[in-house]
Amino acid sequence: MKTNEERLQDILNRLDNLSYIKLEKVPEIDLYMDQVTSFMEEHLRKAKRNPEDKALTKTMINNYAKNNILPPPVKKKYSKEHILMLLFIYYYKNLLSFSDIEQLFRPITEKHFHADSQPSLSHIYQEVFSLEKDQMERLKEDIAAKFKAAAETFPDADEADREYLQLFAFISQLSFDVYLKKQMVEMIIDQLREENQPESKKKR
Predict the structure, then answer these.
(1) Which residues make beta-bridge pairs with 32?
(2) Would you state the torsion angle of the CA atoms of residues 66, 64, 94, 120, taken in this order, to the nearest 10 degrees?
(3) How far are the Cα atoms of 26, 78, 84, 129, 182 from residue 22, in angstroms, in the given order?
(4) What does DSSP assign to residue 78?
(5) Percent of the chain, pLDDT > 70?
(6) Alpha-carbon torsion 35, 40, 46, 49, what sign?
């Protein structure tokens, strides 16, 4: 059985292997559905929890279009902008509801989805993910601090039980952090939804 220190090292090693898909890797040519799913599988394989899981399936992509999250393909082909939107969706889909994602993405798809938009979706993608390196370093520092705090809990517990209780405390800190951040994201989206309601609904 691994020690808690070994588990922490596994986490940090995994973070080192995770990265967003660089803009230059995204095809400039339009793709058919099968080509889109193959691209996602190839480039998101390190982010999957289990190797047999699918990063994005045809059903998922069709559902995003039906729920107004992703603009429909043109003649069954998906553009570079479609791929970039799907990458954004990939990072949001386990965190937010379809309704919340649609609300958040609507200004992006309305103003920046077309190839000649300014700023372009490519530029937006590049700007957003340019923050990744600093964010990753801050995340590692925060994880290490949480781990250290958890290692100081349950000092009087039996030695056989202490290791697991400290691990539980560490996981609880990480989970509470995710919970709070999810609450903040949902609060901002609710504000956006309220601000974009028709005037007639706001007065009710």
Answers:
(1) 77
(2) -140
(3) 7, 18, 10, 9, 26
(4) E
(5) 97
(6) negative
* Lowest-confidence region among 29-33, 110-114, 128-132, 145-149: 128-132
153 and 165 Cβ atoms separated by less than 8 Å? yes
Output the six-digit token pair for 94. 């386990």
Check whether the bond before 27 is cis (ω within 30° of 0). no
DSSP alpha helices (H): ranges in 67-97? 80-92
User: Rounded to an integer, what is the distance from CA 164 to the centroid of its chain?
Assistant: 29
Report residue 121 as tokens.
């979706």
In eight-state DSSP terms, residue 74 is B
189 confidence band (pLDDT: 50, 70, 90): very high
Dig out the tokens for 10 from the structure.
């596994």
Q: Which one of 5-19, 117-131, 165-179 scores highest in mean pLDDT? A: 165-179
Q: Which residue has the tokens 């405390």?
A: 169
